Structure prediction request, 335 residues.
Amino acid sequence: METNTEARKIILSGIQPSGKLTLGSYLGAIKNWAELASDYDCYFMMADMHAITVRQDPATLRATVLEQIAQYIACGLDPDSCALFIQSQVPAHAELAWVLSCYTMFGELSRMTQFKDKSAKNEENINAGLFTYPALMAADILLYQADLVPVGDDQKQHVEICRDIAQRFNGVYGDTFKIPAPFIPKVGARIMSLQDPTAKMSKSDTAAGGCIYLLDKADDILRAFKRAVTDSYTAVRYAPAVKPGVSNLMQIYSSVTGKTFTEIEDEFESKGYGDFKLAVGEAVIETLRPIREKTEELLNNKDYLAEIYRAGAQKAGYAANKTLRKVYKRVGFVQ
Ligand code: TRP
Prediction:
């Protein structure tokens, strides 16, 4: 009989429930996440407790969290092969965050660039949670003894402070936490704005039609692609430096159809930009259609969705409480 003695590595990541997901985040990241679950033990969490460090409308927050879970599942994340859960439903996060905040220094929190940025932008609401945000994030990660934390560049500093906190705690009490590392997953496509192909496609894109959302309607998607910024030449050629608009459309087309750049160039050899844009728009519509339909189906079946996140919280809570109990014992809380 074959026994697998090599334990699988553990991945945890948190997602800010900050709104609608874009085609850029799907092709650049989420699509790859779905594949991680086959190689790692994955915990994916909706970070609603982090979200309230800036003021949220309660109904919107609730709706956004559910919508986001539905979209991740619709994008291919299999809730049976990972723990998909909501942070506030696993109390161990708040509990460990308190303990860790007593091992996190005022000075190091003051140096966090995200704190400086966010407090500059929210001068009327510089609350303590915004300041201690990294201690909660350290708790998220350390509770699961995560090896790897997939994050974007803007969150690397938070993984670093998490390592410092873990090392400090381990130094005082002996090995308690695994020291995690940031993980930059296999890079997906870098998708740019349809209106400004030199800037990344993002939710903060204000230009109409610059950003495609996963739940956009077919008509809106087609219109956005028809109006996509290109150049004053005519050839469909991949050359990001000189033809950023056309190259971005080729990147999108390639990501959704699996065709190579050469195949795409051949396909549109004797056709104009108009035909090309239409083809890209239609291919995107076909890719997003099942995601939108699956998302709607899940959102219309709130009971099933609840089953998923409750099961996720249970799976996560089991692992988290093991670590929390160990920590409580180490710091001297009566058992
Ligand atoms: N702070 C992260 C962000 O803004 C979200 C997050 C919360 C997170 N807890 C986490 C990411 C733990 C990775 C690990 O994107």
In short: Residues 10-183+302-331 form a domain with the Rossmann fold fold (CATH 3.40.50.620). The chain has a mean pLDDT of 93.
